[in-house]
Amino acid sequence: MTDAPRRTALDATHRALGATMTDFAGWDMPLRYSSERDEHVAVRTRAGLFDLSHMGEITVTGPQAADLLDYALVGNIGGVKTGRARYTMICEAGGGILDDLIVYRLADQEYMVVANASNAQVVLDALTARAGGFDAAIRDDRDAYALLAVQGPESPGILKTLTDADLDGLKYYAGLPGTVAGVQALIARTGYTGEDGFELFVRPADAVALWEALTEAGKDAGLVPCGLSCRDTLRLEAGMPLYGHELTTATTPFDAGLGRVVKFEKTTNNGDFVGREALTAAAERAETRPPRKLVGLVAEGRRVPRAGYPVVTADGTVIGEVTSGAPSPTLGKPIAIAYVDAAYATPGTEGVCVDIRGSHEPYEVTALPFYKRQK
Amino acid sequence: MSNPQQLRYSKEHEWLSGAEDGASTVGITEHAANALGDVVFVQLPEVGSTVAAGETCGELESTKSVSDLYSPVDGEITEINEDVVNDPSLVNSAPFEGGWLFKVKISGEPGELLSADEYAAFIQS
């Protein structure tokens, strides 16, 4: 075992751009290139370019690839059409979330599962362990792909100058193979920013050429390189959960308000899947005895709530916990996602505070997301 | 980045000016401001309060983290920068100028402070 952080194919590019690097799940990744606030605003108003090569790709192929994924994951994967993608989760037998995933159906018998960097090995191991008895093969493709994302309202225009692929026909949560700037890519209309955008899965050897072509093509449209710091504030404004914060093994999809991703009506494997029994109970519990609910909090003041800070009433009674918090560049105020007792989860509930290092700062309870783009 | 020669520096990345009108001005260095990222909130000591060298006297909050603010010297706070309270981004845009934090009337000889060149070597090491 070595503790040296892994570096993406774009490592030298990031350093040449003067990026502040950070360790993220064992990878040395760009945190920001200049100001994270400027990068955030660029994605909301123009376009941003991200290196997401740390994400973990796993390919599942074979006659029973769909059956295996239906059994191993909570979603209805067999129902995904070729060329489309689905947001789903992989859970423990006890219902706890192991990871949230995007699964692309690349061909009739071929799927690409994209896991979070921190969980890629866990997902690979779980899929492998659950594959027994299925006529399907699991391939670790973590080193086979670099992943670049172009996000923001200008991203379709920028990409169109570099590809003949039918981007107008490419729906949200769909992917098609094509050529971008002369490079073979899986072009997916997905992202994690709340904006329109594309994720481009390419060979690592092609990553630098593609990055440079996108940078050049986006220059006039105001595209800037973006790091993980603004990616976090973008997803937070968009109300998207982050593994390790809103989602953990101690949480079921129903606890996270994402019960809709669990499909009990599966046509394969007689409807059986890992976690079915526990998740059935979790669904009932969510109906009858609502646990803590995930809500948005908007600050009245300027102090920023952080993950782990208690949510309290004015007299200090703990009623929840912040899972993510940051100053929102779009709202101009600190925002947070938090689990709070159901009695305090209704938007507009009075008297909710966050204990910020001993000071009870007032917060407004709101529905998620904080930000939704105009279509 | 360059550190003004006329200032002195602490290992906690504050800078301290020479005493003008009996008080010295304190801020954080450009190196520290860059490391913090976009500063969004500052909590400064109250005017009239006393501070001690190396002890916490406020907070600097950035997008990703919160850091304690230390005083480089013993003394009494004579003024705080209201502009930076209202616009914390001044810490990033002008750390040695408009982003100054407080003025302090020094009551004891400061401890170990570095020259600009010594500080530059310190942050390189």
UniProtKB/TrEMBL annotation, chain A:
Catalytic activity: N(6)-[(R)-S(8)-aminomethyldihydrolipoyl]-L-lysyl-[protein] + (6S)-5,6,7,8-tetrahydrofolate = N(6)-[(R)-dihydrolipoyl]-L-lysyl-[protein] + (6R)-5,10-methylene-5,6,7,8-tetrahydrofolate + NH4(+)
Molecular functions (GO terms): aminomethyltransferase activity
Primary enzyme class: transferase
EC number: 2.1.2.10
Domain Aminomethyltransferase C-terminal: 292-372
Domain GCVT N-terminal: 12-266
Keyword Transferase carried by entry: yes
Keywords of the record: Aminotransferase, Transferase
Keyword Transferase belongs to the record: yes
Family matches, as InterPro entries: GcvT, GcvT/YgfZ/DmdA, GcvT/YgfZ_C, GcvT_bac, GcvT_C, GCVT_N, TrmE/GcvT-like
One Pfam family per UniProt: GCV_T_C
Entry's family note: Belongs to the GcvT family.
PANTHER family: AMINOMETHYLTRANSFERASE (PTHR43757), AMINOMETHYLTRANSFERASE, MITOCHONDRIAL (PTHR43757:SF2)
Role this protein plays: The glycine cleavage system catalyzes the degradation of glycine.
Subunit composition and interactions: The glycine cleavage system is composed of four proteins: P, T, L and H.
Protein name: Aminomethyltransferase
Species for this entry: Streptomyces nigrescens
TrEMBL record, chain B:
Keyword Kinase: no
A GO BP annotation: glycine decarboxylation via glycine cleavage system
Modified residues (N6-lipoyllysine): 64
CC terms in the record's Gene Ontology section: cytosol; glycine cleavage complex
Listed cofactors: (R)-lipoate
Function: The glycine cleavage system catalyzes the degradation of glycine. The H protein shuttles the methylamine group of glycine from the P protein to the T protein.
Family note: Belongs to the GcvH family.
Protein name (Swiss-Prot/TrEMBL): Glycine cleavage system H protein
Naturally occurring in which organism (per UniProt): Streptomyces nigrescens
